[in-house]
Every structure is written in C-alpha cells, then in structure tokens.
From TrEMBL:
Pfam families: tRNA_int_endo, TSEN34_N. NCBIfam families: endA (TIGR00324). Keywords: Lyase, mRNA processing, Nucleus, tRNA processing. This is tRNA-splicing endonuclease subunit Sen34. It comes from Oryzias sinensis. The lineage of its organism: Eukaryota, Metazoa, Chordata, Craniata, Vertebrata. PANTHER family: TRNA-SPLICING ENDONUCLEASE SUBUNIT SEN34, TRNA-SPLICING ENDONUCLEASE SUBUNIT SEN34-RELATED. It comes from the Eukaryota. Residues 187-269 form the tRNA intron endonuclease catalytic domain. Its main location: nucleus. Its EC number is 4.6.1.16. SUPFAM superfamilies: tRNA-intron endonuclease catalytic domain-like. CDD domains: tRNA-intron_lyase_C.
Amino acid sequence: MENLRREEQQLDSSPVVGISTCDSAPLLWRVQDLRAVRSGGLVGALLGSLPRTPRQNGRLGRPLLLLPEEERLLREGAGAAALPRPAGDRGAELKRQFEEDQRSSLEEQSVLALQDRKAALLRAMTSSLTEEVQQNRLEALDKNFVFPRSALAVQLSTARAGLNYCPEARSFLKIDPPTKPLPPPCTRFQVFRDLRGRGFFLTSAGKFGGDFLVYPGDPLRFHAHFIAVCVEWDEPVRVLDLLAVARLGSNVKKTVLLCSPAANGGVRYTSLQWSGMV
C-alpha cells in the first residue's frame, strides 16, 4: 500500500496527461504524456507507424493506447484530463483543403503522365513514318488521353493533414473533473491497482488467455513472470479451464495467478503450476 500511495502522490504532482479518445479508446499523442505515464509505471501499447519507416511493424510509434485500467488509474489520481478541442470546426476546413490539394495534384500528375506517354510513343514510332503521321498520332493522344484518378499518387505531410494533434503552441490543459462519477472498481481494475501498488508492470495478456501479463520490472528489460486471470472469489471455475490455463502457463514458462478481489479491498492470489499427469 505504501508503494501505491507514493505512486498516487507522484501522479498528483506530475503534469496532467492529455487523453484523446477514438471510439472510446484512450490514446496519448504527446511525447511528454508518453514519458509521464512510462515514468509512472504504466506501459500501454504503441499503435502508430514511424514517419521514416511506415511499412514495417516491428517498431511502432505514437499514439499510445492505454488499457482501460491504466486510464482509470490516471483519472482517479487526477493525473489525466481530456484534450481540449481546437476552437471552431476545423474539420470542414481541413477537408476542403485536402480536396483542393487533391485536385491540384491530379492536374499536375495528368500533365506529367501525358508527357511520359508522348515520349514513349515517340520512342515506339519507327523512322519510316512521316512527320505528318507522327504529328497526327500525338494530337490524337492529346485528345483521347485520360489520367485515371485511381492512379493518383498521394503524398501527405502529417502536419498538413492534421495528424499532428498536439502542437507545442496549443494552450495548456485545463484540469476538468470527469463529467460522470466513476463506477465502483471492477474486478480487473482492483487487481490492476493492487499489482501496480506492489511495483509490478502490467500489459494485456489476451494472447496468453489471461487478463494481464505481470512483469517484475520494465517490460523492455524483463520477461513476464505471471499471467494474471481475474475471477470473483465465489465464482465457480471449471476444472478443464484451470487445466488449460495452467498448461498454457507451463508452456510459456510463466506462473498463472488466479486473482480475486476481497471484501476488505485487497486481492487474494492463488498460483497454478503444471506438474504433469501420471
């Protein structure tokens, strides 16, 4: 609990993290926000591509997607607020600008494509053709040439396209309390908060069949030691489910934790380890 109090005090004294939402998914765009949450022990998951290598998926960049439990922990400590929207409706303006840029680019590329087609036609025509025949073919190409819009090459600057959500010139965030009171802590959040209070780092464990992967330190330096599965204390669990998750934990060299919130606000942990069958 002392660790949890220290972390909450750290969140209280740290700059407010600005959260943008996309279909209710909490996203962080600003570099200072990513640094703030990582220094507070929250990991999240990077989703964006890197500007210089956009086609690879081995190393990703902003935005950072937070777990619902990570967002709630920030909001409970008054360490997060929604990013203010820019004054006025810039969406229509950006759309008009985009369409104008597309039209101008289509015209420029049509001229260049016609020039390339003429050069290819001149190279293809034999010297036996008269100059008049060659000129007639070039004029026919001028009249009938159509550059399809589907062939338009599009190159966007992220700043011009409005993808730079957090310019440095933007006004400072206003700390507004949530418009709706937070619901009572659910099972997953109680487990998340308790494990964070014990100094563990947590990420999503969907691909391992659990709720959280639990790391003893920064995930960039350590492998996960536990797979946390959140269940109610009085919730019946099938034996086959226990066997499946225990066997999975054994295969990936991790210990499975059954995490059940207690009535006093704490969490009870039960570890499962596969020892084979006789």
